[in-house]
Structures are given as structure tokens and as C-alpha cells.
Amino acid sequence: MALPPKFAAQAISSGSFTQTVHTIELYLDYVCPFSAKMWKTLSTSTFPTLQQKYPFKVRFILRQQIQPWHPSSTLVHEAGAAVMKVSPNKFIEFSTALFDHQKEYFDVNVVKEGRNQTYKRLAGLAGSVGVDPDKIYSLLEVSDKPSDDGSLNSGNGVTNDIKQMVKANRLTGVHVTPTVLFNGIEEKSISSSFTGDQWEEWLKNNVV
To answer: What pTM value is reported for the model?
Structure first.
């Protein structure tokens, strides 16, 4: 969990860290329209000037929040996990592309295709931002044959990563998306309707 800078003395570290930062955790779902709205505002208005305006003072963390009532939510978040494995430096760019193309993975647009077909489309989207689509698909593809031990429910190359994400997210009690945590505490004043100017005003008042 994040540690507020004012409580930095509580930390026991393996080295000398004199710089502490605020942490803003964004719990977002790739197929949630409100998550996409928040991400678009941040990625176009806030992130580009973050280092210049708040050097070494704040960090944002994108927490992938799967919403199971959207069946494709698991699949798109698996794609995000695969990109992190293959090209971690492309994760944020891929996330932006996925939010931009999220309607392509809404219920109506996936209901008539098999799971691996959806994975192929997601691998292609990863390719559009410079990630090897074959490597992504190899991590996502689910076999139609039993595993060596006879298991019929063995998942894919990112199943364990998804399990870790879900377990960590459940510990926070986060349910709706988007949800924002500031230094480990839910910040209910922030909503998906925040404009770039509102984000700037909030950061000025809280990141010190």
C-alpha cells in the first residue's frame, strides 16, 4: 500500500531514500466508459506536464480493475498483463490505445467470436503500438487440449499475473470504476468528470 510522505519515517528501506512522493492509484477498467473518460483527460492534460510541474513529488499507478459483469473485461486486462511481460515500456501506450478502442471489446462486439479470436484482435492492437503481436498472442492463447497433468482449466500465460492483481485489488475493497486512492485512502472528491483544469487545481492543493 502507498505511504503518505508525512509518514515516511515509518518506512524501513534497503537503502538511503530521502525523496518521498505522493501516490495516486487509479482503479480503472479498460471497458468502462467512465474509466476511459478519466484516462483520456489525464493522458492528454495532466501526464504530459507532470514531471515539469511536480518533479519527484507524485506518482500515478494504473491499477487494472476487472469488472466481471463485462465478460470481456478479463480478456482485455489479460492483454495489458501480456504487454507488461513482453514490453513493459509500452504498457501505458497500449493502455491508452485500449481505452481509445474500448468499444471494439464491448459485449455486442465480442459475443459472436471465440475467446482466442478476441485475443488475436487484442494482439493486433498491441502490434499497433510497436509490441510483437505474436508474442502477445502466445501468452494469451488458451489451448483446446488438456495439459500434461490432465487439467482442463489451465488458463494462459498471464493467468497467475491476473490472480495477483485481483487479490491485491480485493484487499482495498474497491468496487466501482473509476476509483481513485490518494496515499492509500479513497479520494471521493475526484470523479471521471474532472477536467484537466480541475485535476491541476486538485494537484496544486494536495501535492506539496
So the answer is: 0.92
Q: Is there a contact between 39 and 96 (Cβ–Cβ < 8 Å)? A: yes
- Under 8 Å CB-to-CB from 39, ≥6 apart: which residues? 26, 28, 95, 96, 99
How far the first Cα of the chain sits from its last, in Å, is 20
Fill in the amino acid letter for 161: D
Q: Give the pLDDT confidence score for residue 165 in this predicted structure.
A: 92
CB 11 within 8 A of CB 3: yes
Cell numbers for 92, please give them. 501505458
Cβ atoms of 31 and 102 closer than 8 Å: yes
Q: How many residues does the chain have?
A: 208
